[in-house]
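Q: I'm writing a short explainer about Nucleotidyltransferase for a general audience and would like to include a description of its predicted shape. Could you first generate the structure from this sequence?
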Amino acid sequence: MLDRHSTIAHSAYHDLLASLRDEAIAEIRGTPTRVDRGGRTYWYDTYRVGSDVKKTYVGEDNEELRTRIQRISALREGRENRRRNRARLVRLLRAEGFLGIDAAIGSLLHALASAGVFRLGGTVVGTQAFRLYEGELGVRFTFDQTAQTADIDIASFERLSLALEDTVSSPLDHVLKDFSFEPAPALEPGKTWRWKQTRNEMLVEFLTPSFTEDEPLRPLPALGVHAQSLHHLNYLLAEPILAAVTYRDGVLVQIPRPERFAIHKLIVADRRLDGPDSLKALKDRLQAEFLINVLALDRPDDLQEALEDALLRGKRWRERIKKSIDKSPSLQARLGPLT
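A: Of course. Here's the predicted structure. Afterward I'll give you a sentence or two in plain language.
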C-alpha cells in the first residue's frame, strides 16, 4: 500500500514549484529575446552593461514559458510577498511530514542554483533526485529508501552546454570553495570533474552522457567544468522536469523524469551487480521498484512509453532490464508482460 501525502501537501508543493518558476522569470533584468539555434528556439534575457549587450539564457521555448514571459510585468511586482508565501509553503510541507533536507545540502543546492547550474542544463541525478519525487508524485518515502548520501551528482549534455552560449555567473570552483570543497585528484590535469569537501565525506560530481569509448572526461562549457562520461545517461536526461527543494523559501532545480529515472535504475543495478558497488545495486533496484509501483498506478502510459524507449535501444539494454526485473516479484508483475 502506498502512503500518500495529503491533498493539502500535494497542492502546497505544486504552488511552491509554480512560484519558483514565476520567480525565475521575474528575475529577468532586460528584454526577453527569442533565439533560433540548431533547429531549437531558446529564450534569453538581453540587457546592456555599459556599451556591451549581454545575453543570459532563460530556457527553451515552450507554451508555459511564453505564458510566463507575457506576464513578466506582473511577476516583477510583489516579489517579496511571493518569497514570504514560499517560505510559508515550505513550513506547511514540513508540518505535513515532507522530508527535510540537510542544511549543508540545501545551502549548496541554493548556491549552485544561484550560479545558474540548473538554468543552464544541469540535472540533479542519483539519490538526491530520488528524494525530490516525493513532491512530484505526492507519496511518502521510508527512511530506508531515502537515507542521505554524501554525494551530489549533476549531469548535463555536452552539446547543450555548447549550444546555449552562456556560462554560470560565478565559476563553480569558487562556489564550491566557499563550502570548503577542493578538487579531487584527476587523471588528466586541468580536467576536474569531482570535488570533495574537506570537513566531511560529501562529494560533488559532474557527469555527461558517453557516446564514444575514447574520452572518459568531456567539457561542459556552460558550467565551466569537465564531466565523467557514462553510458545510458542520454536516456536518463531526456526531457527533464523542474523540482522544488524545501529549503528556506524553496530552491528550483532540475531532475530526470521519474519514469526514466526508474528504468535507468534497473539498468544501472545490473551493471553494478557483480562489482564493488553490489550494495548500491540493491538500493538502485529498490528505488526503481518503489517508483514503478507508484507510476504503474498513477502514470501507466508514461511508464510504458519510457520502458518501450529503453527496450528499443538494443540487446544489452533489454538484457539488463530483464535481469533486474527477474530479481523482483513486484517488478515481474508490473513490467514482465511488457518485456
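A: For your explainer, you could say: The mean pLDDT is 91.
Q: Perfect, that's easy to follow.
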